[in-house]
Amino acid sequence: xxxxxxxxxxxxxxxxxxxxxxxxxxxxxxxxxxxxxxxxxxxxxxxxxxxxxxxxxxxxxxxxxxxxxxxxxxxxxxxxxxxxxxxxxxxxxxxxxxxxxxxxxxxxxxxxxxxxxxxxxxxxxxxxxxxxxxxxxxxxxxxxxxxxxxxxxxxxxxxxxxxxxxxxxxxxxxxxxxxxxxxxxxxxxxxxxxxxxxxxxxxxxxxxxxxxxxxxxxxxxxxxxxxxxxxxxxxxxxxxxxxxxxxxxxxxxxxxxxxxxxxxxxxxxxxxxxxxxxxxxxxxxxxxxxxxxxxxxxxxxxxxxxxxxxxxxxxxxxxxxxxxxxxxxxxxxxxxxxxxxxxxxxxxxxxxxxxxxxxxxxxxxxxxxxxxxxxxxxxxxxxxxxxxxxxxxxxxxxxxxxxxxxxxxxxxxxxxxxxxxxxxxxxxxxxxxxxxxxxxxxxxxxxxxxxxxxxxxxxxxxxxxxxxxxxxxxxxxxxxxxxxxxxxxxxxxxxxxxxxxxxxxxxxxxxxxxxxxxx
Length: 519
Ligand code: NOJ
Fold this sequence. Notes:
Oligo-1,6-glucosidase, domain 2; Immunoglobulin-like; 8-stranded parallel sheet; 15 helices; 18 strands; 26% helix; 14% strand; globular; binds 1-deoxynojirimycin
């Protein structure tokens, strides 16, 4: 068993985890100061969101230098110190690898703008002439994932039409041209740079992107194109050429024993998804099916079955996640308030009972809800690019509350980069630590059992009959059973001794919106 196959990996949104210098933005030293908490929580690894040099249009996912730390977050020395200390705590560290695009501030893109059409400098990106009268229309009808067109015009010298460059995200994130050998060589250099420093793995950003179809055909699904997350027949993503990029990544990583790559693969079709997990490609891919399932027993069960089937088809171990910095938080998604919290507790137990590895998102263990932020503080480029119709992801990125002292709640001694609401005091780590009924205590107990109880074994699950609106499954190699009650009435438990419940039992029965582990 390799370390990642059953690991619990904690997603740190670096900007929002812990601020060591009072500027209101989280940083690497801040994370280092909270390693004791992460060890107590019981996670095996951290996935750090992008902390590379960046003008921060997309908060670090617009990278100006992938082999340096942005001064906002620290420096290479701070990274080395964090890595060494995490390892001393027995915690591994996974870092981001962003190969689909750079920042417009990257030296390559600056050189491209300073060079003529057809130059080698422009050939590292996708520059194209426009269409239509005066070449005034973008080269294709592609849309940016963040809203608006996926092309931005660069004027030519006096009297010339200029060119357009492709960006699947914001206009400050130009897409790299993966037919250019320099792009390959540079990604390899970045991989080696961080692997040589000792990182344990890479999270591959937009792993379904990178390669583009040679002819850049129009998106024929328009009008009425399908938004992110359901993109079969989307010419922007899942081009067959991308698998060679993953082979390159794998090839490099294979020179570093014990390291891994996990991809952000947003591909809906099961067979297409599984192709990323072939033996010579990614070790793991995020699976968002469970996260996307509504809180209904049939839907959750169908999502679990689909994930297990898809991963098994290529002999890979499944991954599970209820959230990350790009999606609404679980408590909010499941309805918010007491019901949303109860459901998030139950789903945490469902997730942690499954075979494979689990990717948590910071604050999930505190039961943080999304924050309804006022317009004027929103920073996600989605907000502007969508013409103020998509509020973006900031609501799930509000900093972590460590204690009950506003405005910084132990996250920062300054003003946090997004305002933290008063209710965050009640949800702060310090407020929950000693409370046995808190979400944090539930996570700690569940992670401890998952790591140390012999029942958590067996690579598949067997389903039991269950009352309507409920399910129960057993891990294939043990008697560990997980029961979920997503109905509106209490139900009897399946046979076995109760190990843990997400909500106290009611007259021996499992209440609605609750889960139980039995052995
Ligand atoms: C996925 C990252 O998680 C997200 O935050 C970012 O905006 C996009 N990829 C583009 O890099």
